[in-house]
Amino acid sequence: MLKRYLMAASGCLFALILNAQEQSQEGQLHGNFQIDAQSYTEDSTIGASKVPENVLMNAYANFVYTKGGFTAGIRYEAFLNTLLGYDARYNGQGIPHKYASYTKDGYEFTAGSFYEQFGSGIVLRAYEEKTLGVDNAINGFRIKASPLKGVYLKALAGKQRYFFDLGQGIVRAADAEINLNEAINKLSALSTMITIGGSFVSKYQTDKDPVYKLPENVGAWSYRLNLQNGGFSLMSEYAYKINDPNGDNNYIYKEGQAILLNTSWSSKGFGVLLAAKWLDNMSFRSDRNASLMNLNINYLPAINKPYTWAMSNMYPFSTQQNGEFGLQGEVMYKLKKETPLGGKYGTNLTLGYCRVSSIEKAKLNDTISIAESGTLGYKTDFMSMGNDLFYEEVSFEINRKLSQKLILNILYQNITYNYDVLRGMTGHGKVYANVGIADLTWRITKNKAIRFEQEYLFTKQDLGNWVMYLVEYSVAPKWFVTFWDQYNMGGEHSDAVNYPTGSLTYVHEGTRFQLGYGRQREGVICVGGVCRNVPASNGFIFSVSSTF
Amino acid sequence: MKILLVSVMIAICGILNAQNATIPSVTVKTVDGKSFSTDSIKNNGKPIVISFWATWCKPCIMELSAIAENYETWQKETGVVLYAVSIDDSKTMSRVAPFINSKGWEYVVLLDPNGDFKRALNVINVPHTFLVDGNGKIIDQHTSFAQGDEEQLYEKIKECVKSE
């Protein structure tokens, strides 16, 4: 049945392609692919296990055809079988992503699978992050229109991707955004750029619950205002969701709310940023029983600053959708070049702070405990702050070019990490960690360089202290040879363990091959600030990706 | 199986055809919040560099910093313009403006918070840099960054100007 459906779909696609040939512009075919394979060997020291398949593999390929305003694409995916650390429900292969769209005169029509974001995403964001196994694409129809200058409208309906299938719930949504300076002639000369927007999202899922009478239609809406004048900018969005008993909030009949405020001011060589986020009960999925990264309709951005260094990601923050209050501030400053402090080439300094805590939740009455299933849950005041600290971080970064040949990056972080809340466990308490990182690039010749990283993480809790060394030799534009070793000095409860890894990378234009071998520690991998857990492993890693 | 075969065929066509690729049309945002169609990426017949980056991506910052040192010379000699497309999502998007200002970068910066432009150009990881000639054709691309890549890129920009 599925096969027949796929054949029909691809037939339809080609008919469309052939039809599109009649237009004047030349058609183009392009795409990309990626294959990640890993072998798994037993390694009892780090708790890595063997897999019966010996080798596991995740792969996909996108093929996109465009001609004039017409675009059609498919993505083939294969998980043979799924790499450890990803949801095993991905096992198998197929074409889960297929679409066609047509654009003309400010109108765009899409049928099939698509990604979308309204405003900052707090009521709707369909997106993909392959390395994390996130893909909540909507499958259905979407219309985008710009009927007037500065006015942008979107409407969509569909079901979300759920592994190689679709989720139960239906998502219907609309969004309007108006740039007042473009839309209203009188405001075109105004030095302040004003953009306003609003979204409405509704999901439908049947109620088959034997105990509770659950709302089958759940609506959420948001308003946003963005202002910009010279170096000043304000981005704000407020969202509201009606009662939506679900697996994340323990089936309470309480409404949800969220507000995001981001403001910044900058001029050449100086930038300052302040952000605040308050949210309560904002989990919003197209299946009320879904969990993990599945079937999220909205996206609640985390407020901390992400880094690419390994030790900085040892204790990463992630958004607490049942309630959190976050504050963030950052100052960036460039010491001018040719000054005593700035040195010959200038120096960038960054000072950052962020703090996320719980929100105040009060019992409804003496007999109902907080967030008790089937009740209104609890009482909370808008913008209230609770007593539980989830995460706090002070960071200081220096980026300086020492000479024509040497570039130095230094980072210091002081982190307080609420292990129990952020990993959903009990009995671990909080982790207090100090992280120090030095990253030095030595440019030996025009195209050859060596990069050294030294990273330290000091903590008395959890696994204790860590140290990491990395050496990378690169020959532009093709070769990287990298060796790194993470060493856990051990603590009261654990022995010292070494995690050495080596890798060889070859790059040719848009194609990249990587072969690596070594130990990977159990923990969290973060890409672009979204994180997933990976188990400990030992073995070969082979990866190839290409854009064509 | 048939689909796989067809897919492979498309892939082969795609590779053969790739030489002709032009900049796809997608709506992104400018740093001041306006919608911007990527159709408008033009430079009066002079070459264009499109570089995908993010504020959290260290090699991207190394690359854009390395180019920034000589960008003025590049512009004078070849007339090239660099579009730095940030893929920071709503988590870090508000860092982009203060970040580029504090670095003192003179690039045209675009925001692609949900990866629409990134997907349209089939970018897998950042950094990923495209070179577009004066006729709007993508003539070269490079993924990842090693010290010295920026000089290779400049050689290609100069070749591109010479051949026109």
Write a structural description.
- The complex is a heterodimer of chains A (548) and B (164).
- Helix content of chain A is 5%, strand content 54%.
- With 548 residues, chain A is mainly beta.
- Chain A has a domain at 302-360 and 385-498: Porin, CATH 2.40.160.
- In chain A, the strands form four sheets. Chain A has a 24-stranded antiparallel β-barrel. A two-stranded antiparallel sheet of chain A has the order 6-7. A two-stranded antiparallel sheet of chain A has the order 8-9.
- The two termini of chain A are 33 Å apart.
- Chain B is of the alpha/beta class.
- Chain B has one domain: 3-Layer(aba) Sandwich (Glutaredoxin).
- Chain B has a seven-stranded mixed sheet.
- In chain B, helix 2 (58-78) runs parallel beside helix 5 (149-162).
- Chain B is globular.
- The N and C termini of chain B lie far apart (45 Å).
- Mean pLDDT of chain B is 89; it is low at 12-19.
**Largest sheet of chain A, if any?**
24 strands, antiparallel, barrel
**What is the SS-derived class of chain A?**
mainly beta
Mean pLDDT of chain A: 92
How many structural units, i.e. domains of chain B? 1
Mean pLDDT of chain B: 89
Secondary-structure element series of chain B: HEEEHEHEHEEH
CATH superfamily descriptor of chain B: Glutaredoxin
The best one-word shape of chain B is globular
Proportion of residues in β-strands of chain B: 15-25%
Any guess at the CATH architecture of chain B?
Answer: 3-Layer(aba) Sandwich
CATH-defined topology of chain B: Glutaredoxin
What CATH calls the topology of the domain at 302-360 and 385-498 in chain A is Porin
Structural class of chain B: alpha/beta
CATH class of chain B reads Alpha Beta
Sheet with most strands: strand arrangement of chain B: 2-1-5-4-3-6-7
Largest interface: A-B, 103 and 67 residues
Assembly state: heterodimer
Q: Total helix count of chain B? A: 5
Summarize the biggest pleated sheet of chain B. Answer: 7 strands, mixed
Low-confidence parts of chain A lasting 5 or more residues at pLDDT below 50? Answer: 18-24
**Low-pLDDT ranges of chain B:** 12-19
